[in-house]
Amino acid sequence: MAMALRAASRVLLRAGSRLGRREAVDGARRFANKRVLVETEGAAGATRIAVMKFRNPPVNSLSLDFLTEFVISLEKLENDKSIRGVILTSDSLKRGNQTKVAATEKTEEKRATRDHGGRLQERPGIFSAGLDLLEMYGRNPAHYAEYWKAVQELWLRLYLSSLTLMSAINGASPAGGCLLAITCDYRIMADNPKYTIGLNESLLGIVAPFWLKDNYVNTIGHRAAERALQLGTLFPPAEALKVGVVDEVVPEDQVHSKTLSVMAKWLAIPDHSRQLTKTMMRKATADNLIKQREADIQNFASFISRDSIQKSLHMYLEKLKHKKG
Ligand SMILES: CC/C=C\C/C=C\CCC/C=C/CC(=O)SCCNC(=O)CCNC(=O)[C@H](O)C(C)(C)COP(=O)(O)OP(=O)(O)OC[C@H]1O[C@@H](n2cnc3c(N)ncnc32)[C@H](O)[C@@H]1OP(=O)(O)O
Question: Sign of torsion, CA 71 75 76 78?
Fold first, then answer.
């Protein structure tokens, strides 16, 4: 009987919610949009933690669709009173039997790495490749404005989230990938020298927006941010720890367990005092964008539409396409 009830409840849950699939798996719960998988841990009625896993192949770039799904998922978690902590991480795993399809093939599907069954795969070892360059290249100003609004929205939601946010950085984390991480309250990075993190916009011939710069300054201090932003420094884990972009570096196979144990310590603090403190520390930075959001959108749309900027992006995309290894 109990088995039948459990089976029936699985069927009902799998029937789907308005926003995406929802499943019950061994006491844990999960819901998924196409590009973000959310798994919650902890017993019903008790404090629970959610793990948001990015799965936007091939490199978890922040496309408009991904940003939209991310915000929807985060909002759902904010509205769930049993959830107090959220871990951001990549679903990208080392998988065998992958074939990278020809670089000359242009569509999103074709750009992705696929397994031998033709299914899309994440490239391994990538937390997020940052903003989707194809959303900022060769489009029209209205698209740039829509895209930038979505980027701002995600940053504001994360930066001001009342939840305890942690990032478990299990791969490369350039630019917008670093943005996701530095909005969090705590960052733990895998100790793999192939993974780097930082704001490398200047290398692409573009400029980080003032609010991202402010977030960086608040994280690593003015002088370090000034230097790292101009040079577009991507820090390997040991250096990222030294400069303060991340709070801890641990062996790759311990990133998840370590993040869970740090989360437990943070959740021992009363929510109201921690949240008020967080707001006190962050509100002025966020307000600075809120009061000039529209101007920032217009600035972005006109900056990114410039021929010289489009040319820089084109060259960078070509460089990525033709790079070796
Ligand atoms: C006045 C001022 C007003 C406003 C401010 C103005 C402008 C501000 C805009 C500033 C904000 C920018 C923030 C950003 O996030 S910009 C994006 C920066 N990202 C990067 O530089 C990362 C680039 N990618 C990489 O370094 C590597 O791809 C990576 C290390 C992530 C993975 O390497 P790997 O070898 O595993 O894969 P690749 O073969 O390189 O990539 C696979 C395919 O994916 C494509 N790709 C990679 N990154 C992106 C991306 N960010 N967007 C879209 N597509 C991406 C790559 O080209 C490959 O494609 P194919 O060759 O297979 O076609």
Answer: positive
Ligand 1 midpoint to CA 10 (Å):
39
Distance from the alpha carbon of residue 131 to the mean position of ligand 1, in angstroms: 7
Cis peptide preceding 174, ω within 30 of 0: no
Active site residues: 131, 176, 200-201
Contact yes or no for 128/151 (Cβ under 8 A): no
Interval 246-302: pLDDT, tens = 999 999 999 999 999 999 999 999 999 999 999 999 999 999 999 999 999 999 999
**Residue from 35, 54, 56, 59 whose mutation best tests the ligand 1 pocket (most atoms within 8 A of CB):** 59
| Cα→Cα distances 250→192, 242, 257, Å | 9, 14, 10
pTM: 0.88
pLDDT at 220 over 80: yes
The protein residue with its alpha carbon nearest to ligand 1, atom 24, reads 129
pLDDT digits (tens, 9 = 90+) for 109-151: 444 555 555 555 678 899 999 999 999 999 999 999 999 999 9
| Residue reference for tokens 């003015």 | 222
> What tokens appear for 63 in the block?
């496309």
Strands of the chain, DSSP E: 21-25, 28-32, 36-41, 48-54, 83-90, 98-100, 113-115, 120-121, 164-169, 173-174, 186-190, 197-198, 248-250
